[in-house]
Amino acid sequence: METGYNKCIGTIFWIVAKFIITLLCYTVNTYREGMMEMNNFLRSVSIQIQRESNEPLYTQIASALAEAIESGRLAPDTRLPSIRALAAALEVNTVTVVTAYKNLEQQGYVWSRVGSGTFVRPAPPAETTRQIYIPHNGINFASATPTPEIFPVADFQRLLNQVLDRDGGHAFGYQESQGWQPLREAMQKYLANSGIHTPVENIHIISGGQQGIDLAAKILANPGDTIFVEGPTYHGAIASFQSRGARIVAIPLEKDGPNLRELKQALRRHKPRLFYVMPNFQNPTGYSYSTQKKQALLDLAREHQFIIVEDDYLSELSFDHTSRQPLKAMDSQDQVMYIKSFSKILMPGLRLGLTIAPAPLNHGIGAAKQFSDISSSGLLQRTLDLYLREQAWHQHIQAMRKFYSARYQAALKALAEYLPKEVRFTAPGGGLHLWLKLPQGISGDQLYQRCLRENILITPGSFFAPSGRYDQWFRLSYAAAGEDEIFKGVETMGRIIKEINSPHTIQPLL
Ligand SMILES: Cc1ncc(COP(=O)(O)O)c(C=O)c1O
Fold first, then answer.
1. Domain of residue 76, residue span
2. C-alpha of residue 161 to centroid of ligand 1, in Å
3. Please, are residues 226 and 272 in contact by the beta-carbon 8 Å criterion?
4. 446 touches 474 (CB < 8 A)
5. Within a 10 A sphere around the Cβ of 449, how many other Cβ atoms?
6. Predicted structure pTM score
7. pLDDT, tens only, 182-208
8. Could you tell me the distance, in angstroms and rounded to a whole number, from the CA of residue 447 to the centre of ligand 1?
9. Which of 132, 140, 151, 283 to mutate to test the pocket of ligand 1 (most atoms within 8 A of CB)?
10. How far apart are the C-alpha atoms of 350 and 476, rounded to whole Å?
């Protein structure tokens, strides 16, 4: 009986001992593998911490990781070491690593998921442009195209006839690439209203703002060059710069302009050819730069020798009587390539705009324009010239402000009434869209898909980044939606967000 009991105790002892030994071996192996993994990681990233430097430790770590990601030493989708492990290996506080990872996430280098870890951003899709599907009978919060109801069609009809009576066939001949001289003179006067004073010889007529961006890309960006953009930014610009093989670095945008600390940090790592910006009613955020940030940007451009490409597509559309001058009006050192589009403030089908290049680029812009489309339409240039000279545009812009201000107010009211208060946004005081942040756990792409099922269109935030970031954001444009549609669409959207956000019901297992 006792022997049986002893035998049983012995077996249990043997099993427990074996379990403890296995556990110890496993722990030692895991630790050894972890150390090897960490050593390999630190070899590929090379984080040299300089404790006596003025640069905070977290930016030193973030810079080293960003550099490794950009050079490809840290491949897309690589999982970064855990915060605790990296902090122990670098002998820093865990808060320092948390801040470094957060900083990298804000810049779009990494993404994280609670419980899974932090990962290097995935490789950008091979396709450079994404299309948003727009059905005919839906509520369209995706389009930022002005509504045809308020186009000055009657004025243009009258002026077109005037041009044809006056110029006949000449209006249909090849035109001077730089643009119809009288129109450039009229543009010179128009620009003076915004504080931009420039000789007529510096003004080039272009076929819309998109062509201006494309010309900037052609003359300034070569494969492998680095280009700074605001994060988030206009997807048409991303596509143009990517088509030149340029590397795009997004500088996080704040409510009053680019984050200057991030910009300076990026300037330590890169030598950008240009920084593409929209200082007034930025697309997609609607944010406008403060005068201080405009000046700081000009100072940094001079110090680091890069060109600022200013896309002024909407400065005039201010609803709060604040005048928002273009950056070009402050450009005493000739560092800004200015692009003005007439698509949003007049009619996109005109395909007319202008650009003013810094003196050293003037010839290059002229040549690039000539080999792009020879010239913009002679007939429409002549008609726009008469329209600007008649001063009719003053009234038109007043009418536009009134029309869109009513939609803007309707949108603010509807958002306050129907969306959960966890949805965050800033009222921009003008422009054609609002930029909204969804509650944690809901992505803009998810909302886009769910809204689409109810025939409502929004633009998900991922549309505005070179590498699919801003997934918690979306853009809501009121350019193509009437006031009734705004209320109806936002009410439905509020319901959808609440449905996505509601906690899952747990069914007991019976
Ligand atoms: C910021 C921005 N720049 C440029 C463009 C292109 O405009 P355009 O019609 O003048 O080529 C757009 C069009 O939506 C835009 O949103």
1. 2-120
2. 28
3. yes
4. no
5. 11
6. 0.77
7. 999 999 999 999 999 999 999 999 999
8. 25
9. 283
10. 25
